[in-house]
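Design job #97: recover the sequence.
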């Protein structure tokens, strides 16, 4: 079951996609009959919005396993906010009121009027998503980890509005390559702290010893050195090992 940030992110992104697709369809339908600069501007704004939503809604989950650099989200949120604000503003600046006698024709005039409503709704949705992202994700990230952390991959819930604080260590997929990754050192600390005798996990040259949660250094897929040493010493000191040594000695 989705928590609060997940549910809000899903709702906002789905509504933004619906509004952008409707705006795209209306502006494309109008442009098919009449070339109007204001409508073409709305068409371009809606195409950029749909493309961005495809990035956060499909590309990031599929290829980056919900990881994305924060600076991309920041730039695209601000860009869509500005484009949609200006798109419905230019429509409102020359808004027809009498469609039956309008030179565009009644149907095109009604399409033009409808574009204003959906443009405003889409802009309001982006206002919320941009505000939530900056206030709850971007600013805390910069404050805690520094300015340059935004150029690294950060774990997000679906939709890339809220940071996922419980991602921990997980497999990241990138164009068919499977890469172990963690957003920062705290994730690795959580993995070490939660090992407690679990089978060893080796990531990027760091091994977490399964015996007693002892950490060691080793190559990917190979046990950590400290973990192996600890396990060997415990096995050598066990009663069964001592009995086997005594039996072998007496035999000779």
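Job complete. Output follows.
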């Amino acid at each position: 079951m989705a928590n609060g940030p997940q549910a809000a992110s899903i709702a906002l992104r789905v509504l933004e996609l619906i509004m952008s697709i409707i705006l795209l369809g209306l502006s494309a339908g109008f442009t098919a009959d009449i070339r109007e600069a204001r409508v073409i501007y709305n068409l371009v704004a809606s195409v950029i919005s749909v493309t961005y939503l495809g990035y956060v809604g499909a590309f990031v989950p599929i290829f980056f396993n919900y990881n994305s650099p924060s600076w991309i989200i920041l730039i695209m949120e601000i860009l869509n906010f500005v484009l949609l604000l200006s798109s419905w503003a230019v429509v409102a600046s020359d808004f027809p009121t009498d469609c039956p006698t309008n030179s565009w024709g009644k149907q095109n005039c009604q399409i033009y009027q409808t574009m204003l409503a959906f443009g405003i709704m889409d802009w309001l949705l982006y206002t919320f998503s941009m505000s939530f992202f900056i206030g709850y994700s971007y600013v805390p990230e910069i404050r805690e980890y520094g300015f340059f952390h935004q150029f690294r991959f950060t774990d997000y819930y679906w939709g890339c509005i809220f940071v996922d604080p419980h991602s921990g260590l997980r497999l990241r997929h990138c164009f068919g390559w499977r890469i172990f990754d963690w957003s920062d050192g705290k994730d690795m600390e959580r993995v070490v702290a939660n090992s407690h005798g679990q089978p060893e996990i080796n990531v990027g040259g760091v091994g977490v010893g399964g015996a007693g949660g002892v950490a060691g250094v080793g190559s990917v897929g190979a046990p950590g050195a400290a973990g192996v040493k600890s396990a060997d010493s415990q096995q050598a000191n066990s009663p069964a090992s001592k009995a086997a040594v005594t039996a072998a000695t007496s035999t000779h």
